[in-house]
From TrEMBL:
The keyword Transmembrane applies. It comes from the Bacteria. Residues 79-242 form the DUF218 domain. Pfam families: DUF218. GO terms for cellular component: plasma membrane. It comes from Leucothrix arctica. One of its GO terms (biological process) is Gram-negative-bacterium-type cell wall biogenesis. The keyword Transmembrane helix applies. Coiled coil: none annotated. Keywords: Membrane, Transmembrane, Transmembrane helix. PANTHER family: ENVELOPE BIOGENESIS FACTOR ELYC (PTHR30336:SF4), INNER MEMBRANE PROTEIN, PROBABLE PERMEASE (PTHR30336). This is YdcF family protein. The chain crosses the membrane at residues 12-29, 36-55.
Length: 250
């Protein structure tokens, strides 16, 4: 089911929808005067989403609501740290075949910093949507122990979505009497995360990190199509699509 969801998602926004536009043009508008316009729209939106100007704007629309804060531990107090899963690397032979993704590693690093500054215990949440035999939470727990010498108190390995992250983490924390927790994830992911972590038994406070910027976005480079900008646009569109979907579900 997760593969079907991702397939549909990848066909909605670029570059997947470019293929969809071209196929529609070939199959249904073969002799129509609309076909060149359809192709123009497909190529134009691909080029636009590939520019730092557009990708930065999309990212900023997500990140500006919960920007990272310097020395968060001096401004707030929490009783737990919740770290959201962020993917895995299944071909990391140098690490024994499987390990956390780069995004997940960034989240662990910030959680480790918060833990060292406060001593607050950590909850790791993330399931195993591809049935590999080990959950993202377990992978994070291994890395947290091996590379940061920190043992997670809670490991929630049954959730497959951010919504399920919120539901199952809240059950674990509230069962142990936790009232407040920092929610650790990327700044671009925080808006959708807080959407589903709000109004739970535990009060969650955003602890975002990695406020994103494009490396090449100065002067004319702001309008130069770049693969990295297209990737950032894809991340932002995924987040907004998820945000709208969760709004419907709520």
């Amino acid at each position: 089911m997760i593969l079907l969801h991702r397939t549909i998602e990848f066909l909605i926004y670029p570059p997947g929808n470019l293929l969809l536009f071209l196929l529609i043009g070939l199959l249904f508008f073969r002799r129509s005067t609309l076909k060149p316009y359809l192709w123009f729209v497909a190529i134009a939106q691909l080029l636009l989403f590939s520019t730092p100007f557009v990708s930065n704007g999309l990212m900023n629309s997500l990140e500006s609501q919960y920007p990272p804060q310097a020395q968060l531990w001096e401004q707030q107090q929490a009783e737990a740290i919740v770290v959201l899963g962020g993917g895995r690397n299944d071909r990391a032979v140098e690490y024994g075949g499987i390990t956390v993704s780069n995004a997940e590693m960034e989240r662990l690093r910030y959680a480790a910093l918060l833990h060292r500054k406060t001593g607050v215990p950590i909850l790791l949440t993330g399931g195993d949507p591809i049935n590999s035999g080990i959950s993202e939470a377990q992978l994070m727990a291994q890395v947290l122990k091996d590379e940061f010498n920190i043992t997670a108190r809670w490991v929630e390995g049954n959730s497959h979505t951010t919504w399920e992250n919120a539901e199952l983490s809240d059950v674990m924390l509230s069962a142990d009497g936790i009232k407040t927790a920092w929610l650790v994830t990327h700044a671009w992911h925080m808006r959708r995360s807080m959407q589903v972590f709000t109004n739970r038994t535990v009060t969650y406070m955003p602890a975002s990190h990695s406020y994103g910027v494009s490396a090449w976005d100065k002067k004319w480079m702001l309008w130069m199509p770049q693969a990295s900008a297209l990737a950032r646009s894809g991340v932002a569109l995924h987040e907004w699509l998820g945000f709208v979907w969760y709004s419907v579900l709520k």
